[in-house]
């Protein structure tokens, strides 16, 4: 039986206080839900789930108290570990919207010509930007494509393909 894929929703960036709270950088659009008291998160370095006992926001980071983490020393050992949830727990998105992890690795084409693979999604505020790494030896080595409806013609997750129309002058 295939193991379910886990999706990172936060990264522990430090310890806070003496009672075992951890500082968490949110990697989800729904942190208030994911980090609410009672939520269960898989703690990568522990190899098990932990329940959120309490949660608050401080200086843009979430401060979480997780079950089984009782002091600062334990919290400190979790530095740079990811908090994850099963992929099946993700909300279904409307047609034409995708989670970033679904797009990473897609082959990107323009007019039938392979431009490369989508390797990263940069969040810029106004709109996301897709980073496309060209096949070895092809120039430019990297292409940045704005995630706009005018540029993204088709996304086919089943075939691992994205078709795009690059803005005029992007490759000049």
TrEMBL record:
It is found in: Cytoplasm. The keyword Chaperone applies. GO terms for molecular function: ribosome binding. Gene3D superfamilies: PRC-barrel domain, RimM. InterPro entries: PRC_barrel-like_sf (IPR011033), PRC_RimM (IPR056792), RimM (IPR011961), RimM_N (IPR002676), RimM_N_sf (IPR036976), Transl_B-barrel_sf (IPR009000). Keywords: Chaperone, Cytoplasm, Ribosome biogenesis, rRNA processing. It comes from the Bacteria. GO terms for biological process: ribosomal small subunit biogenesis; rRNA processing. Transmembrane segments: none annotated. The PRC barrel domain binds ribosomal protein uS19. HAMAP family: Ribosome_mat_RimM. Belongs to the RimM family. An accessory protein needed during the final step in the assembly of 30S ribosomal subunit, possibly for assembly of the head region. Essential for efficient processing of 16S rRNA. May be needed both before and after RbfA during the maturation of 16S rRNA. It has affinity for free ribosomal 30S subunits but not for 70S ribosomes. This is Ribosome maturation factor RimM. It comes from Candidatus Avidehalobacter gallistercoris. The lineage of its organism: Bacteria, Bacillati, Bacillota, Clostridia, Eubacteriales. The gene is rimM.
